Structures are given as structure tokens and as C-alpha cells.
């Protein structure tokens, strides 16, 4: 059983943040998850979970969701039915080019991750769950940072998690993020249109 915390502030967005979904990533993501507190959530709920160490299987691989930890992830999603689902990952620095290069869509079928700052990357979650379990209007984000992050990187990562935790809905989130990362928001909408066609979904 990994780290678990649930912050409840009445009605509003249901948020589920899961860290360390494969391999040793949880050792890094727990550093960020533990920094989220009551003060970061204004309304709705925030469920935080950090998985224990497991065998590394990519979440793009359908077999992942048949593994023990993959089933744990699916269970948490079905249990909490989040409107906002955030997966916290970390990557080896040598993986940076593969994660961010434009040909990622041809290689692995998903758009490249987008750098916010200091090596912190955002993208969608695995299509295995994004289009099969979640609704189009749900907010689903993968957040990556280099494993064993520097203080500066961790700061960017935690700050973004706090924005997510405090956002009331998609519009509120996009407005807040646009102020700090306008180009990245534009790029992410362009990539979302590759997956979903029309985007934003309203
Ligand atoms: Zn990962």
C-alpha cells in the first residue's frame, strides 16, 4: 500500500493525483506529492496516491493495466471517478529527446511531451485510459520531471501541481496556466486536436 491522502473541501472538482505508477518513479514523485496540503485545495476533493516500487512497464503498453500496479491505478480511477486525473512520472535525463521530439507520434502513437520549465514536461495520459475510461471533457495530464530532481526542477513541478489542485475547472486552469506558460498551452491544445479532433471540447 503506497502513500495515501484525501483532502475534502465540499462540492467541486474531483481530483486524483497518482505518482510513481511504474518502476522506481515513486521515490522521486513522493517528494512532490507530500508537498500538497489542505491550503492548496479551495473546493472539491483531492485524492493523493503514491505507488510503491514495481516492475517497469510503459503505461502505453496494454499489459501495464494487467499488472498489479496497473490494476491499482484502474481501481483508484473507478473508485474516485475523477474529473481531473494527474499522473506524476519521472524520467532518466537521457530519455528527454525521445519524450519531447516531434516524431514521437509516429514512433509510439502519442504526441511529444511539452516542456514547461527546468525539464518539467506535460502531456496527456496513456491512450489506453484517456479515450477508453475518461470523458473528453475530463482533465487528464501526465507530469514528468527528471528522476532525483534538482531543487529548482522540483519547485516548478510542485508549483504546477498546486495550480492543478487549486483550479476550479478547465477554464480556470487554462487561464491560470496561460499566464505563466502561454506557448505551452497553445501547443498542448494543438496536440489535443490530434487526439480528439475538436478541442477545447466546449
Ligand atoms: Zn513513468
Provide a descriptive summary of the structure in words.
The protein is of the alpha/beta class and 202 residues long. It has a single domain (3-196), classed as Aminopeptidase. It contains eight helices and seven strands; from the N terminus they run ββαβαβααββαβααα. The chain has helices at 26-33, 68-80, 96-100, 104-108, 127-130, 151-166, 170-180, 182-196, and strands at 3-9, 14-19, 44-50, 84-91, 114-117, 120-123, 139-146. It has a seven-stranded mixed β-sheet, with helices on both faces. β2, α1 and β3 (44-50) form a beta-alpha-beta unit. α7 crosses α8 (182-196). The model has no long low-confidence stretch (mean pLDDT 94). Bound molecules: zinc ion (ZN). Zinc ion is lined by residues 22, 25, 89.
TL;DR of this structure?
Helices cover 38% and strands 22% of the residues. The chain contains 8 helices and 7 strands; from the N terminus they run E-E-H-E-H-E-H-H-E-E-H-E-H-H-H.
Secondary structure elements and their pairing?
Blueprint lengths: L2 E7 L4 E6 L6 H8 L10 E7 L17 H13 L3 E8 L4 H5 L3 H5 L5 E4 L2 E4 L3 H4 L8 E8 L4 H16 L3 H11 L1 H15 L6
Parallel strand pairs: 2-3, 2-4, 4-7
Antiparallel strand pairs: 1-3, 5-6, 6-7
Helix pairs in contact: 7-8
Bound molecules: zinc ion.
Amino acid at each position: 500500500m503506497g502513500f495515501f491522502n484525501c483532502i475534502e473541501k465540499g462540492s467541486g472538482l474531483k481530483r486524483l493525483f497518482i505518482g510513481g505508477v511504474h518502476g522506481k518513479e515513486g521515490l522521486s514523485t513522493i517528494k512532490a506529492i507530500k508537498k500538497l496540503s489542505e491550503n492548496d485545495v479551495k473546493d472539491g476533493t483531492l485524492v493523493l496516491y503514491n505507488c510503491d516500487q514495481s516492475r517497469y512497464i510503459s503505461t502505453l503498453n496494454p499489459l501495464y493495466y494487467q499488472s498489479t500496479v496497473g490494476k491499482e491505478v484502474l481501481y483508484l480511477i473507478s473508485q474516485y471517478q475523477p474529473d481531473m486525473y494527474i499522473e506524476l512520472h519521472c524520467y532518466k535525463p537521457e530519455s528527454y529527446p525521445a519524450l519531447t521530439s516531434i516524431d514521437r507520434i509516429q514512433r509510439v502513437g502519442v504526441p511529444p511531451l511539452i516542456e514547461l520549465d527546468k525539464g518539467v514536461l506535460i502531456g496527456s495520459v496513456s491512450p489506453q485510459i484517456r479515450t477508453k475510461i475518461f470523458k473528453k471533457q475530463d482533465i487528464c495530464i501526465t507530469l514528468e520531471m527528471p528522476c532525483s530532481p534538482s531543487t529548482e526542477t522540483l519547485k516548478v513541478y510542485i508549483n504546477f501541481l498546486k495550480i492543478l489542485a487549486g483550479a476550479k475547472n478547465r477554464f480556470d486552469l487554462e487561464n491560470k496556466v496561460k499566464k505563466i506558460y502561454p506557448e505551452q498551452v497553445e501547443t498542448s491544445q494543438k496536440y489535443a486536436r490530434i487526439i480528439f479532433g475538436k478541442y477545447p471540447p466546449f
